[in-house]
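Intended use. Records like the one below are meant for learning the mapping from a protein sequence to its folded structure. Do not use them to infer anything beyond what is encoded.
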Amino acid sequence: MPQLLDDPSVFRSLLEDLPVGVYVVDREQRIRFWNRGAEHITGHLAHEVVGQRDKDELLKPCDRQGRSLCGQHSPVAATLKHGESHQYSAFYLHKKGHRVAVRIRLRPILERGDVIVGAISLFEEALSFRDETLGQLMYGCLDAITGVPSQRLTRAVLNECLAGMEAANSGFGWLRVRILGLREFGLKHGPQSIAPFLRTTAQTLRHNLDAESFLGRWDSDQFVAVLPSVSPMMVAATAERIRRLLSQSEISWWGDHFQIEAEVESGIAQRGDTWETLWRKASAAESTATAIGPVGDGTPNSDPARR
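Structure written out for the chain above:
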């Protein structure tokens, strides 16, 4: 047993096989270790990232408000500078472009007891029970492209929620998310080109809505979410958070990178509403929208369909 514990390869193998993401950085924030769990959660393979100095360019972490957690004031920088341990939630940018909610535990690596030589991060995807069992519960009712409930099922769920308000005497919050310029982009680049936009949007939404919320496909370029909250402030805050996270999601198409331009409408359903009246109310109100240009082209407020 002592010989086994003294073998560094044993510990490396254990880190590789842990059911969580693990990475190690040195004092210069150069990535020295990246396990299989990190590959699974982020989509980035070890041979692509080990040796890179700036993981922030890779993962572009942000908080729930979409604020960047990169640079000198990031938790990793604080750990390397002050030897602090951190436990927090963040959103990593997956290699495929969507945002992934993660829970992170960050610790300094000390040599001779007090010399900081690096940092180790353990992180896991903040998946809800709903996400893990969705495919089993709704087999045959999921949209083939995005994996969320199909348009037919979504309309049925929304109608049921609206009908249920009469008996429960309570409303619910809702979001409608529309990807701007998607139809034009598909006409220009072919129908298959819109799939990455839809998948990335669906994944970002699935990872960043509460477990009690329902998310489904509504139209060719739209998604609908039903929220348990009936607080206008909470629903509006959720819409703004989703808008910010979508604006920081991106897709790649034939070597070009595009950030998603999305319009997020929100509101509270009340007794007597139908889904038609909900959308009319939303259209009459001021929409929450963002317009971000393709990554790296230096053009602000650019519609990806015009690229």
